[in-house]
Amino acid sequence: MRLLLIRHGQTPSNLKHLLDTAEPGPGLTALGQEQAAALPGALASEEIGALYASTLVRTQLTAAPLASATGLEVRVRAGIRELTAGDLEMRGDDDAARTYMHTAFAWSAGDVGLRMPGGENGAEALARFDAVVAEAHETGAETLALVSHGAAIRMWVAARADNVDVDYAERHPLANTGIVILSGSPGQGWRALLWEGESLGPVPLTPGPDDPTGATVEQLSRGE
Length: 224
Fold this sequence. Notes:
Blueprint: E1 2-7, H1 12-15, H2 30-42, E2 50-53, H3 57-70, E3 74-76, H4 94-108, H5 122-138, E4 143-148, H6 150-160, H7 166-171, E5 179-185, E6 189-195, H8 217-221
Parallel strand pairs: 1-4, 2-3, 2-4
Antiparallel strand pairs: 1-5, 5-6
């Protein structure tokens, strides 16, 4: 199975660097709308069989152009929403950001009992994301697309992909509409094929074999 994990388009809270994780959350900026509109062209070579988005508005708006182009229904699931910030909600200071990401990557490293201040713990966050991936796998589709959130995607991939560790995920933020592509299954495990660290932007770009953004995770980690 091929799993496409797509971060949502740019939001006003992204511009202010706020930990904005509550439902329903903000919509997209003008650039975010352009980024979402670029997704169908960028993913034209992918035969997507099922499309999911989180319960936060920004992911559903990002998924909408892809749904229109593919004719797929957007299946909205709370399990792939952003990691809840708890007491850190709507803070934009460095201390809050450090605590939030430190907690998320501690979960990836196995400390799943650690709790986000006033929020969920790692076992809860991983279980809800796992459940949506398992449900998607049960559709039988060869390629699945999940429109989710930056911290949630990075945390889950670092925890579940056998070739992405915490150090790599920590050093490679995922831009708006950045995509991580994995191969595998819930039963057999996952291997990351591509970590797209650049925003798709308003102009669709499909990475080719000579494009460094189309390199595998192993190549990127070696600086190739």
